Structure formats: structure tokens, C-alpha cells
């Protein structure tokens, strides 16, 4: 029960608390305000003193500063002069050959990674309503198997624009590309050009990805020691092989993986450029309509000149570091991937599974990576063979 005494104590306590909380802050605040003004004045004085000291110091050192500034200007001028001289050294002499210019524009370094690009071309762009449904299925297989890769499916027109851009400093290459009388030649040339400049994987639109691209390299082989990955197209182990194929071992060029600047690509681009400009000079650009048409394409831009370029590289010790001759016999009957110099050669099963000849395994073989459906209407199957 509340007694009188108790209520007096409670009232006194409430009053005391009231004073503590509400009267005290006002007086502290006023004191602080006074203090702040004094402090502000002190700071202002201090700032003025500091600024005038800095001005004095600056005046006394301005002469030294001027000298310093002139020294810096002189060094800058010398640096610019050196830079100019360096640039002149870096520029190629005007008569540098196509090979030198290619090596200069697209240097090769095995220590680079294989770029995560997939390059494909067809008459139309992928989203064009006329783009063939069959190819759409094959093209999508590359996306499904290769998450995170940049996948470009370009129309012939886009490919042309890209090549003009990438090779603008090597006009001979563009001249050769433009001079080609038919798309089949340009489509062949394009794959070497894009891989030389950007690297990655090129594959025809009628190929189907069976496994992710990184699976192509066996665990036992260090990717940093490789620069080019190719597959065997034909290994016709029969006495009359030359009635069917132009080369005893033929490497396919419907699927190729490379790092930018690989010397095999540099060589084939240089060779095709020279051949084409020579034909242009002699007015021999048109493809024959006879049975020689196939073998002409084969040796101008197709698997014939491709296979020769690969063997040319293996047998050039300066480029490949190999001191023993390398011939078709090194690759016949292969059933496992084989690294020769910085080139990984895949067995026939890898890019031609299910052909049921020349020792190829089936589509489910662990080494089956890409299935070629041979539906490219620009390249009838007989054009990859000899004149027969
Ligand atoms: C190619 O085969 C020849 C003859 O059998 C052999 O001497 C050479 O070492 C082989 N080269 C490679 C790179 O396998």
C-alpha cells in the first residue's frame, strides 16, 4: 500500500530524475557551444599560419622546381624519340613477304590456352528462316556439349567482313580471298584464316559434337605442349588407294582445333595466297567443270594442301624440332591419339566414327569426338577424293 512517506520519496525521485535528464543537457550544450567557437578560432589561426608557411617554402624552392620541370620535359622528349625509333624498328620493311607479315601479325605461343571459340559458317546466319533444319540440330550439339564457349555461326557475308577486318594489314591475303571464283574455296580458306588469327575450334555445319572439346586431349598429354589438334580422314590400306585418295594418309579439315598463329596455319595461308594470286595473274582462276574439278579444289584449298602443309611442318626441323623424317607410315593404323611435335593427331575414329571402314570405331567409342554427316551441299563427297 502507498503510504504518505513513500509517496513523498517517489515524487522527490521523479523530480530529481526530471532535472537530471531535462535540465542538464541545456547547460552542457551552451558550454560546448562556447568551447566550439574558441576552438574554431584557434583552428582558423593555425590554418592561416600553415598556409603562409607553405607559400614561403614554395617561393624559396620555385627556382629548383623550374629546373626539375625542365629536366622532366627533356626526359619526356627523349622517351618519345626512343618510342618513335622502336616503332620504326617494329614496322616491317615494305617488301616483307606474306609469311613474315603473318608471323608478325599473329605470333604463336604454345603457352597460351586453346581459346574457347567455336567457329562455323553457312550461306545464311543461324537465325535466318532459310537456315537448314538439319544443320540447326548439329549446330546446337556444339552448344550443348561446350558450356561457356563462344560459338559463332556466321553467314558467308559476315565471314567476309570479319576476314577483311582481321587481315587489313596484309592486303595480299584479302586480294586472294576476294579473287576466289567460288564459295567452296572461300569456305575452305576461311577456316585456316580464322584459326590463324583467333584460334579455337573450326567445324563444318554438318558435324555433330559427340563429346566436349576439352575431352579431345588425353590426360597423359600436357595441353601447354600442343598448338594444333587434327584428325585422320583417310588411311586406305589397300594397293589401289591412289585411285580413291590423293594422299596415303589424309588429315581432315572439316574439324580443326588450334592456338592462334600456329605455323602450319601460317604456311597454308601463305601457300593458298600465293597460289591464288599466281592463278589470278595468269588468268586461270576458274575451276574446271570436268572430273578434274574435285582434285583441283583438293589441292588448292582442301584436304590435299592441308595434309601437305602438316607433313611439311613435321619435316622442317627448324619449325617442328623433329630430326627424323615423318611420313604416312608414322600414322597408319593408329588407334590412339599421338602427339608429334606440338601437333596432336587423333585416330580416324575421333572425327569419322561409324564409317565402318579403315579401322574406324563406332559413335560410342570413347575416342569418338565429332560425327561428320557429309551433308554440306557445297562439298560433294567425291570432291574430297582423287579425280575418280
Ligand atoms: C616415324 O617413323 C620412323 C620410322 O619408323 C621413326 O624412325 C620415327 O621416329 C617416327 N617419328 C615419329 C615422330 O613418330
TrEMBL record:
Q: Could you state one GO biological process linked to this protein?
A: protein N-linked glycosylation
Q: What is the annotated signal peptide range for this record?
A: 1-30
Q: Which domain of life is it from?
A: Eukaryota
Where is it mostly found?
A: Golgi
Where is coiled-coil annotated? 40-92
The way it spans or sits in the membrane comes to: Single-pass type II membrane protein
Q: One Pfam family from the UniProt entry?
A: Gly_transf_sug
Listed GO CC annotations: mannan polymerase complex
Q: What is this protein called?
A: Hoc1p
Query: What is the organism of origin for this protein?
Result: Sugiyamaella lignohabitans
Task: Please name the taxonomic classification of the source.
Answer: Eukaryota, Fungi, Dikarya, Ascomycota, Saccharomycotina
